[in-house]
Amino acid sequence: MALDTRPPSNKAPVRRTGASREPERDAGRPARSLVVALVLASAALMVVDKAGGDSSPVDPVRRVVGEVVGPVQAGVSAVVRPVVDLPGAVRTNASLRGDVKQLEAENADLRNQLAKAGYDDQRLAELEGLRAVAGDLGYALLPARVIAIGPAQSFSSTVTLDAGSDAGLHPDMTVVAAEGLVGRITSVTAHTATVLLIVDDTSSVGGRIGENMELGFVRGHGSLGTDDRLEMELADRNVVPKVGQQIVTWGSEGGSPYVAGVPIGTVGKVYESLRETSYRAVITPGVDFTALDLVGVVVPSGTRGRVIEADGSLR
Amino acid sequence: MSGRSTGRLVAVLVAVFVALLLQVTVLPNFAWDVGGLGVVPDLVLLVVVATALATDTRFATLTGFWAGLLLDIAPPADHLAGRWALALMAVGYVVGRLVHDNAGDVGAGSRFAREGVRRPPLGLALAAAAGGSFIGTSVFALTGLLLRDSGAAIADLLPVALVALVLDVVAALVVVPATLWLLDRTTRDGLPRPSQRIRVRT
């Protein structure tokens, strides 16, 4: 009997000392309620952002933060660029003119590639005719520099440009480099713009084979893996893409988010997808996404600011 | 106490912001290329680890949450907001708990209790950086998989997480001591001196 009553009376004081010693062991330990609250806050934020989609309530916050951080990023980038960019180290503000010349050359090169992309002569003539009719149906480009690159740990492929809504940019504009399509703008602040690269796995671009005008969708494969970065699935199941064929954008309604006729890359490999009874082509992108620096944003002709017009003139 | 904690807060704010800028603007130029874009050291994560080493778990958890939130919404981030907030919060909490439960300096009379900041040995700092990096990248990747925010497969995630871990440990050699120094300095300077205050008032 006595043995039965002892254990509980012994246990009670042990518990009490344990409880009183607890705060002394680590005074700075967060209360469990705080940890739970923070976890729930994070989860709620993710869900709200996900459910919000394009009109997410987080977007205004992003924009405000971008307005603050963007200029600082541009400043740091400007300071660091000469150091990391030793080959072209002699870049001063006055050499902007040089940049523009380079872009002009790039622009000419781009249109050259366009012409060579396998559009047949008739189409070309038609295009030239259309251009003559429309005056300048060709695209005006706004030059911009890449000032920040999202790390691979984020598993999404985005970069920041040093031009924003002040320069006339807005979401869903096409971004190109000399070698071809880079991506589209997803959000802008006054001085910066965030670009979703076409290799991102959420990116999908309407593309066509230049030689036979066959339509398809070019999808990014995520930023990971050196091969198979882009792949294209053709709408017509009977058409077999051939290695080496040029892929160009087919263009969206109103040129937003993608304008037509920008080279994306060439067909590298072709797979037959048995399950879907269609052909899947792996595209080798023309652009080197690891070495992006100077890019052009396609803007409506007549946009104010330093813009390169389609005829090569600079305003 | 209040002077000490504001000094600490300012130090962490400065450290997080500088780390963010370095991480997205400067380091991509020297990135380790694993497929697509380069892997860069997670400087913001390392600042959180250093905060967890030097201060208490509660402060580290809160720092992790807010630093992660900044990483989530500052350009060029385009993923769902809250993912890095959750990941870095977990880093701050876990590293803080492990360090503080195992270190012998949590008693009332220790140097930590007197000054609010401690200097951990280098080995512990590197181990914490490695662990923190693994936890942070994993939590971030897993939330992406759960929410279907990122289409990358687990097989693709692992090499990136490992490369990130190696880079983080290397970067920790610089970032953790720098953050500790900053924290140490601001908390020491932030201490109000009673004698001066009395002289000013009278």
**Major sheet of chain A, described briefly?**
6 strands, antiparallel, barrel
Structural class of chain A: alpha+beta
Mean pLDDT of chain B: 78
**If helices are DSSP runs of H or I spanning 4 or more residues, what is the number of helices of chain A?**
5
Number of strands of chain A: 12
Straight-line distance between termini of chain B: 23 Å
Strand numbers in spatial order across the main sheet of chain A:
1-2-5-4-3-12
Overall structural class of chain B, as computed from helix and strand content, comes to: mainly alpha
Structure characterization notes:
The complex is a heterodimer of chains A (315) and B (202). Helix content of chain A is 34%, strand content 25%. Chain A is globular and about 70 Å long. Residues 5-24 and 122-137 of chain A have low confidence and may be disordered. Chain A has one domain (33-48, 56-315). Chain A contains 5 helices and 12 strands. With 202 residues, chain B is mainly α. In chain B, helix 1 (2-26) packs antiparallel against helix 7 and helix 3 (57-73) packs antiparallel against helix 4. Classes of the chains: A alpha+beta (315), B mainly alpha (202). At the A-B interface, helix 2, helix 3, strand 1, strand 2 and strand 5 of A face helix 1, strand 2, helix 3, helix 4 and helix 6 of B. Chain B: It comes from Nocardioides daeguensis. Chain B: It is a multi-pass membrane protein.
